[in-house]
Amino acid sequence: QVQLVESGGGLVQAGDSLRLSCAGSGRTFSSADIGWYRQAPGKEREFVAGIGRSGGMPNYEDSVKGRFTISRDNAKNTMYLQMNSLKPEDTAIYYCYAQLIFTRSWGRGTQVTVSS
Question: Which among 16, 39, 71, 114 has most CB atoms closer than 10 A?
């Protein structure tokens, strides 16, 4: 299993940018498909972005395409979510995950708040 810790959240204004980081521990990080979900108040957790073990072919939820970019650095056991042109509707707790064959690990989340 992979232990994950997010960082980089905060309070920003609409149009600003943030970069979230998620540091993983364990030698299996590079073998995992990884990504981000988010959960807004009163809503279900939703997929935001994901990327495979090699770092190729990322996929995104439609509302963040063209604004968010997911990446990974396996040498540092870290994944990133660059978020540009933030909107108030992006306000949520953002969770990173790491998916191995039989297990999915989650971080505890980092709050992103976008004011209008």
Answer: 114
